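Below sits our specimen:

——
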Amino acid sequence: MYQLLRFLFFRLDAEKAHYLAMNGFRWMTQVPALRLMLKKIFTPPAVAPVNVWGLSFKNPIGLGAGFDKNASYLRELELLGFGFVEIGTVTPLPQAGNDKPRLFRLPQDRALINRMGFNNDGVEVIARRLADWRSSPTGKISRMVIGGNIGKNKITPNEEAWKDYEKCFLALYPHVDYFVVNVSSPNTPGLRELQEKEALRTILTHLQTLRSREAVQKPILLKIAPDLSDEQLNDVADLAMEIQLNGLVATNTTIARSGLQTEKTTVEAIGPGGLSGQPLRARSTEVIARLREQTNGALPIMGSGGIFTAADATEKLEAGAVLVQVWTGFIYEGPAIVKKIVQGLSIPSNQ
């Protein structure tokens, strides 16, 4: 069934198809009988929860940031069985993002290219939306963990970026279960410069100071790019251990274009942006393994990049991840992806 729907959706602009699909799914879940049927269809089998950072994830399959930027579809995504959903990237001020079109499919490569540019409703609106979710009947009984992915506004200079991360951190703190600091998107000019060791130290230690004033110490993770050199990865791992960061997310999208099956002229016509999906699978797994080795397995890692099947998820877990996130795989595999992965998942003995 989804293959037919995907055929139809792939005839539309990718961003329009995204909103059409999710809003259509939301409409369907308003009908009680349909909602019960959909829940029965998509609920994955019960597995042992993953306990990390003082949180209990009902299964290790999450949805990466960028899909539900504005925390608009939490009820619907829980129905699809996700163990956790990461909202955002959230910035202090609302921003429209980059010019459209800005999301492109590469079906031959089972990949996407995006240059969305942190389009979101701004932290105040999103915080209110999360508060409403938490107080709703569904939210009160939800076992789905919510992460908050935070970034800086495009107009904010890098030397003042820490202020943007602070604003988002404080506004979302009552409403999310963990944080991911995003300095690795290729779609905000200059953002990746913040991955340098001392720039990272400034942002992360400041957030840790803010957290120390809170009654509940929520985990802070760092999301990194797959394009970092081995030396840069070592710096990130060393800093994370030094400041006792809670974990890492590996990886964001890549600016690389090597090895694609799609015609070179087509890729060049699309232009800049972050590549995600199957072409990223091997590199993200390589980064996970290196980070695990560099930290002696002491730092929990979320694996992200090219996860479509249970075998893909298992590969990430065996490389050293404790949890995994899907995004592009969700687009290509459809709403049953969590159920299919959980059914076929092989948990390494060291997890």
Summary: The CA atoms of residues 197 and 235 lie 6 Å apart. The chain is about 40% helix and 15% strand.
